[in-house]
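hey team, just a heads up i'm posting the complex here instead of the shared drive bc the drive is being weird again. everything in one block, sequence lines first with there labels, then the predicted structure for the whole assembly after. its two chains so it's a bit long, scroll down
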Amino acid sequence: MDTPKTAEFAHIGKSLIVKGELTGSEDLYVDGQVEGSIDLQGNNLTVGPNGQIRANVNAKGVIVQGKLEGNIHATERVDFRKSAIAVGDVITQRVAIEEGAYFKGKVDIGKPETRSDFKVASGAAVGAGSPIPGVAGKTPVTDSKKV
Amino acid sequence: MASVAHSFMKIFRGSSPGPGHLPSPAQTTKRLSRRSSGLAELGKSFASEEPLCVLDLGSTSAANIRYLTERGHKMYSEDLLVASTDPSLPIKDDAGNPVLDSKRFLADNLAYRPGQFDIVLCWNLADYLDESLVKPVVGRLWSLLKPGGMLLAFFHTHEAGPDAPCYRYHIVGGDSLEMQHVDPRREVRKGPTGVAHTTIGTGVRLQRVFNNRHIENLFRDFSSIKFFLARDHIREVLVVR
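-- predicted structure starts here --
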């Protein structure tokens, strides 16, 4: 998901501007501008470094390298990379925030199954996971896996 | 407080660092550990099984988000220092002095319903925030806190000196913090709808030093205030609405 190939991702290039409702059943890479809503249930959204999104987002996983204004509902995880500028509320199971990322909003961590863990990138120095109240055992911090 | 402390608060102004003063990458990534008595006091609340609503006003910290959400609390993050660098904020007051537009600032930031939060983590915001915003922000925070809600803030003492670095605070334990040097500066980029966006760069410095009386005046609307003096020239202040 880091370096998407256009054959694997639907791709909105940096010269494209989309206004309206975006829905789909494949992964999407946005390096252009989108205003409206994005619904990719079961698939991933990557906002590239040039991407500028003003929309509520529904997806499995969301990676933000550019700008995103809107609420994010991701069933699996949200990654804010160091260049990310995100304003809006986040509902997901896991969040990763790189040093330098700007985030303004609420974080709501769902605990649907047995764990809710964070992986912090770029030496953000969060060590091993902590126990979750009401959940037996320790919560491991997982490696950064491709979504 | 403003009239009394106005000139005092300018102690550190007018001595802005030269262009060569920017921190090295090593400075910005190095982390220091410190024990926080104020955080330890808050820890009793964090241990509560009742979910709390917490507002973190420092630079975004994944560690803080994890620490709080894993305990079942709701976490809101808002970096007011970066927000205060909005280029549309500077105006002139009635006397023609340059100030920041606090009304506009509060229209764009801290927009929550009254009494929403149990705890507000201010960290060292007040020491680095422009003077024209400090009192309005504290007033807004008072209204955002529930009665009995708590606010934790750090203030430098005189010994810290004008070049005391601004830190991002990471909660790593019940009374333990890691501090990471951070210098917020706004880089304006236009969004898809013409809205200005920000990112973090470099360039912030201590605006003033509050003494105990100034701090008490700043939080005079709160019901109680507790000071913790640390060895690293920081006064931790825990106030209760």
